[in-house]
């Protein structure tokens, strides 16, 4: 009898527990292929991000959009690839692009900027230059409602977007590789020219690295920006090599501009001083092939794709013209490319991402 009662109580207990479960199950919606709410939200977020990144259709004051590129210089392979990026983006979006090359003449640069403003350009992009040269004209452009996007020049003007390649990180990547390769000691040559915002930033990191590694000694410093910087650098580097003729006198050359690195590399190769290593900043098709040459002293270079910089400048300008919010500063993430990363056969910048994965990442 007791066993029967226990069995009945146990059955009743199970029945009571089952009732809420059945109720919950009946309240649940029928299974379907619909996405869970979090997945829907994530998909909507991605779609919004794509929409935010989309370049708006350009609109000019008088039909076709007129954009002026004011460049301090367009010489050198790195600069020419930057210009190619600007031209490509302009062509894709039907922009009437006018390029003015000041050929390192600050007065010309200021004059070209004034001309662009007076001719009522719809937008202005600037490549390099000096703050004191450009700020008055840029302020006038902004006052007239002409948007400005600048590359590698410091402009303290509200409404201007400034693009850079993160020059501090560029220098840090290259210098770290140099220090590692020479075991933190030895004589080095520093090729440097002041007065350019990116050069000044790179040099600050260089000075800190010298303090950090007292075993490294700078025995020579030279540099200039001319119409043929690479050739001038080569001539001066040849003189330095004659001044320090013995193997071991110089361990490395720090060349924070690819035009410097090209000149130093040629001088070292021709002198047969293959024990000297060169470390640079910036890359181009020509630079890659020089690094790939057998016995090349050019061991590493930190860089950002120059064509991508030009394309981004145009994109940001179009966003400004469309009334979209744009950042005050936009900084690219540089990548270190070493000689060991590269194949034996020559490659170009478009192929680089096949050998350096980071090069192919977005921006």
Automatic annotation (TrEMBL):
Keyword set includes Transferase: no
The keyword Mitochondrion is annotated on this UniProt entry: no
SUPFAM superfamilies in alphabetical order: Periplasmic binding protein-like I
Main location: other
Protein name, entry field: Sugar ABC transporter substrate-binding protein
Basic and acidic residues compositional bias, start-end: 39-54
Cellular localisation: Cell envelope
Ranges where the Periplasmic binding protein domain occurs: 68-325
Entries under CDD domains matching the protein: PBP1_methylthioribose_binding-like
Top-level taxon: Bacteria
Region annotation Disordered: where it falls in the sequence: 30-60
Organism: Bacillus songklensis
UniProt keyword annotations, A-Z: Signal
Homology family: Belongs to the bacterial solute-binding protein 2 family.
Record's signal peptide: 1-23
InterPro entries: Bact_Solute-Bind_Prot2 (IPR050555), Peripla_BP_I (IPR028082), SBP_2_dom (IPR025997)
